[in-house]
């Protein structure tokens, strides 16, 4: 099977690997492991210091792309140029904030010969933090109560209803547990400046944090579901260590989500299991998580399966994976040359 895909050229975003890492490098590792070293990976970056740019053993060449705020026309123009240079077979976007644009231009990309495997705009909207509580009520999922915050004064109502501690979340990314009104106001201003409004105030649920990585087939089912319990969590709430676990309730929850949405593509469910065993959906991220390489290690290589599905190959749903597979994230000082950074900054290619 590896030979069939050996000459593929796949473009991947999300090359940042800081304390809030993007999924890109984990996706690339998974693809390389499945399809071999002859697979050509094109990195798509937004900043000149995204570490993936300089990891030449994983990324063959990187091109800078316009920020999502620059719109679909700018993105399509840039991808057209990159495609002329590289003859891309498939693009895998890995950031929430860029998905709207990629979904919108997917038909044009398809005409150019670039495959995608993405949800629709409607599917993207279903699980948006702004609509998540409403979606949960409609489909009988446990979702914490929330308030949409358009100005700092809106926190008064939220704190009256939920008390402290309280979760304050950005529209696309970032979440803070706050214990006082001063902390809540500070978090609101920080998140609204970074991601815009509304900011989400969400009821705090105490329990065990579990994440589910899944791959929806677009027909109401999942090709893969792998659950992971967080063992170490950073100040930003990111899993820095975790272990695969098996629980039929978690698999059923992901399958219920896929059935309710006909989700197409990778996604992550952030779950809190409380002391009564209720599974609360805290967030549903519309792309692979940064820990997705763990799915490959456990026996269900989700990025590789997505590639096959995007290229219209038949993929049988995975039936099992290995529990007890542990990941521990670590920092590594990668050495590059300042001329590489200058090349990327000035010309937008490396």
Description:
A hairpin with a 5-residue loop joins strand 10 (222-233) and strand 11. Among the domains are: 2-117 and 333-347, Rossmann fold (3-Layer(aba) Sandwich), CATH 3.40.50.20; 145-203, Dna Ligase, domain 1 (2-Layer Sandwich), CATH 3.30.1490.20. It has a six-stranded antiparallel β-sheet with strand order 13-12-9-10-11-14. It is globular, with a radius of gyration of 20 Å. The model has no long low-confidence stretch (mean pLDDT 92). 42% of the residues are buried. It has helices spanning 2-5, 24-35, 72-86, 96-112, 121-126, 132-139, 155-162, 181-195, 248-261, 293-297, 302-310, 338-347; strands at residues 9-12, 40-45, 61-64, 90-92, 146-149, 166-169, 175-178, 199-203, 208-217, 222-233, 239-245, 264-273, 279-285, 326-328. By secondary structure, it is an alpha+beta fold.
Write the layout of secondary structure elements.
Layout: H1 2-5, E1 9-12, H2 24-35, E2 40-45, E3 61-64, H3 72-86, E4 90-92, H4 96-112, H5 121-126, H6 132-139, E5 146-149, H7 155-162, E6 166-169, E7 175-178, H8 181-195, E8 199-203, E9 208-217, E10 222-233, E11 239-245, H9 248-261, E12 264-273, E13 279-285, H10 293-297, H11 302-310, E14 326-328, H12 338-347
Parallel strand pairs: 1-2, 1-4, 2-3
Antiparallel strand pairs: 5-8, 6-7, 6-8, 9-10, 9-12, 10-11, 11-14, 12-13
Helix pairs in contact: 3-4
């Amino acid at each position: 099977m590896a030979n069939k895909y050996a000459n593929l050229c796949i473009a991947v975003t999300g090359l940042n690997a800081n304390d809030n890492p993007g999924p890109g490098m984990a996706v690339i590792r998974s693809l390389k492991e499945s399809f071999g070293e002859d697979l050509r990976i094109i990195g798509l970056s937004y900043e000149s210091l995204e570490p993936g740019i300089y990891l030449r053993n994983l990324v063959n060449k990187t091109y800078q792309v316009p920020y999502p705020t620059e719109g679909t026309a700018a993105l399509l123009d840039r991808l057209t140029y990159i495609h002329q240079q590289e003859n891309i077979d498939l693009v895998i976007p890995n950031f929430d904030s860029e998905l709207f644009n990629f979904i919108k231009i997917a038909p044009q990309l398809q005409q150019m010969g670039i495959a995608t495997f993405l949800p629709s705009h409607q599917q993207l909207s279903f699980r948006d933090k702004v609509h998540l509580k409403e979606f949960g009520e409609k489909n009988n999922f446990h979702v914490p109560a929330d308030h949409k915050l358009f100005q700092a004064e809106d926190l008064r109502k939220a704190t009256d209803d939920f008390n402290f501690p309280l979760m304050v979340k950005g529209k696309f990314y970032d979440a803070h547990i706050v214990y006082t009104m001063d902390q809540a106001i500070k978090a609101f201003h920080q998140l609204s400046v970074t991601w815009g409004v509304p900011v989400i105030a969400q009821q705090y649920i105490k329990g065990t944090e579990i994440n589910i990585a899944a791959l929806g087939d677009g027909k109401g089912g999942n090709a893969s579901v792998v659950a992971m319990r967080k063992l170490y969590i950073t100040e930003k709430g990111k899993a820095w260590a975790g272990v695969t676990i098996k629980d039929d309730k978690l698999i059923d929850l992901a399958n219920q989500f896929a059935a309710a949405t006909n989700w197409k593509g990778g996604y992550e469910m952030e779950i809190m299991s409380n002391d009564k065993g209720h599974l609360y959906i805290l967030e549903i991220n519309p792309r692979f998580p940064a820990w997705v390489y763990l799915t490959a290690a456990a026996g269900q290589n989700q990025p590789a399966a997505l590639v096959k599905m995007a290229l219209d190959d038949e993929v049988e749903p995975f039936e099992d994976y290995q529990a007890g597979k542990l990941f521990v994230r670590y920092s590594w000082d990668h050495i590059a040359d300042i001329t590489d950074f200058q090349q990327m900054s000035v010309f937008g290619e490396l």
